[in-house]
Amino acid sequence: MTGKKLKFGFHDFINAQPLLLPLKEKAQQLGVTLVTGSPASLAERLRTGELDLAMIPSIEYLKHSEQYRLLPGIAVASRGPVGTVLFASRLPLPEVRSVALDVRSRTSAVLLQVLFGEVFSPNVSLESADPNPQAMLKQHDAALIIGDPAFGLRSDFPDLQVYDLSEQWFQQTGKTFVHAIVAVRNGIELNQDFQVTVQEAKTEGLSRIESIAQTESEQSEIDFETCLDYLSTKIIYDLGEEEMIGLKYFRDLCFEKGILDQKEAIQFIEM
To answer: What residues are paired with 75 via a beta bridge?
Structure first.
């Protein structure tokens, strides 16, 4: 469709399945090879040119926005509790001295700093770690857990203070939070048919939420009702007006706090 086979990166957490599964089915029509991995690894592979476009953490787009344009209409976002971006602490927040950050995440680690940076001790240590909650919390005062391992966190560690960062963001700002978006490297052209087919894939995936939830439940230790509620009510797959307001506000806060060196306009692929 685009003249050459493009490499399209997509994370493979449960929340991506309503987008990922139909995209796999349409890969030949789209003229892409789908490459899966963690959000952080996809961001790095896109930045180095190994991928042509990818679903990456929103902070990675904001840090390198001059290199990318966004694919319209598609995102992984939330508005209120999401259940899979959790900060768990063994101590009151001002007493925390070390935090283990899930190595697969970029946006959530920055969101943690935006939300709690002024609460933490100035000398708090932030260290990347493999996504093993038990090991993370054994070695550190607190841990940031994202994705599928977060589902059992509250039941496995009932004595911890657990904060849902999406819920915290919504309580503080009243805005939608955009966790990930599809960024396209400059120089990669996507015609209108490509973009229409991606939107059709999203629509098809959302129409199959129940069967996707059933499959994910069978392949994990997460019960069906939890999967269905997560995919149908917790995750937003659009990149519309409300999502853009939230994304721009996150960009502005990151700039104000010195996390971003620049505040660039958000650019989209042209239809």
So the answer is: 181
Cβ contacts of 35 within 8 Å, gap of 6 or more: 7, 8, 9, 10, 42, 45, 51, 54
| Residue 177 φ then ψ, to 5° | -110, 130
Mean pLDDT calculated for residue range 226-230 = 96
pLDDT tens by residue, 18-68: 999 999 999 999 999 999 999 999 999 999 999 999 999 999 999 999 999
Q: What is the residue-wise DSSP string for 161-203?
A: EEEEHHHHHHHHH-S-EEEEEEEEETT----HHHHHHHHHHHH
Q: Which two tokens stand for residue 250?
A: 């996150």
- Nearest by Cα to 70 from 37, 46, 50, 44: 46
Nearest-10 Cα torsion for 212, 213, 217, 219 = 20
Q: State how far the alpha carbon of 141 is from the alpha carbons of 109, 130, 150, 214, in Å.
A: 16, 16, 17, 36
pTM of this structure: 0.94
Residue 36 neighbours by CB distance under 10 Å: 16
First to last CA, the chain: 15
Task: Please determine, for residue 105, whether its predicted confidence score (pLDDT) is greater than 90.
Answer: no
Q: What domains, with CATH codes, occur in the chain?
A: 6-79+176-256 (3.40.190.10), 85-173 (3.40.190.10)
